[in-house]
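Why does residue order matter? Because the sequence determines the fold. Keep that principle in mind as you read this record.
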Amino acid sequence: MYPKRILVIDDDQDFNSYVRIVLEAGGYRVETAQTVVEGLRALHRTPPDLVIADVMLARSMNGLSIDLEIKTDERLTHIPILMVSAIVSTEDDDLLGRSEDGGSVAFMSKPIAPSELLKRVSEMVKRFD
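Structure:
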């Protein structure tokens, strides 16, 4: 079986590098994008097994734009999304709620401990495998 592919979309290059290091150490293939436009291109070019997107990206489009694109494109609706943000606390990790299908959208607060990130990513890619 091939390694699961994760697309990380965040305008913070340090966060992208951190997530890449953690996930690649966990056996995942990782692609990063710093804008929603770059992320959407990557999403359509080679659909990943999971998207990790910052809720508050710079410029006019944000991580919720990624969620909308995935929900409205039949080729992408199977892809789970892990939304992340530094502006809320861990008590808000269910802020975006969970979908009827068992949680295709989840939320984590930054900073994210490596073990927690690996655990959440593993749960999400297994659930939608």
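The chain has four helices and five strands.
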